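Sequence design from tokenized structure. All designs in this work follow the same two-part layout: the structure record, then the generated sequence. An example of the structure record is given first.
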């Protein structure tokens, strides 16, 4: 028997692979049971998020300023991912006194308070998106051709991460699923319908 082969000459399976396969089977069965359960996710209104932002600033001993409110409004008016520089432009359209420094100091406050989600796609620039409360876990598909980030609800991720981790005697701290992809239309036609 050579290394990597089992008793019958077949390739030996990694011991953790069995745990992963069991976890996937359990997840499939639980999905049918959970169809009747109400979702624990709900949409967060802009007014509720604004109240949370004001409260968080107050608890941190920070002032609620017009510039911070303009940054909040600019961020929550976005339906797509944005960068800090784009947020600066959006906020200045609301209040031209918003400074770059205020944007860069406010973004961590908004992510710490779970009002914004930070997305790192490995390009050196971070992207942000308001937390809507529609899903606790999302998978990101990043188009390498049109630089668009697509988010797909992935309710299985929390369950999968905790199930597999606990079977290994671990506690998950964080997890993410991110897929980098190429645009089929761009490679076939030379133009991407999503490219702005």
């Amino acid at each position: 028997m050579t290394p990597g082969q089992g008793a019958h000459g077949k390739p030996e399976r990694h011991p953790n692979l069995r745990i992963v396969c069991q976890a996937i089977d359990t997840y499939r069965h639980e999905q049918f049971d959970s169809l009747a359960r109400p979702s624990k996710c709900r949409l967060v209104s802009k007014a509720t998020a604004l109240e949370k932002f004001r409260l968080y600033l107050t608890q941190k001993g920070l002032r609620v300023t017009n510039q911070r409110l303009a940054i909040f409004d600019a961020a929550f008016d976005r339906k797509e991912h944005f960068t800090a520089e784009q947020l600066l432009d959006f906020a200045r359209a609301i209040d031209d006194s918003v400074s770059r420094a205020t944007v860069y100091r406010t973004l961590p406050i908004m992510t710490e308070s779970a009002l914004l989600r930070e997305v790192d796609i490995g390009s050196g620039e971070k992207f942000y998106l308001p937390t809507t409360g529609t899903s606790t876990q999302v998978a990101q598909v990043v188009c390498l051709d049109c630089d668009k980030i697509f988010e797909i609800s992935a309710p299985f991720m929390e369950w999968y991460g905790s199930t597999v981790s606990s079977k290994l005697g671990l506690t998950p701290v964080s997890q993410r699923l991110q897929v980098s992809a190429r645009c089929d239309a761009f490679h076939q036609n030379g133009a991407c319908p999503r490219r702005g």
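The two ends are 58 Å apart (CA to CA). We note this feature because it recurs in several other targets discussed in the main text.
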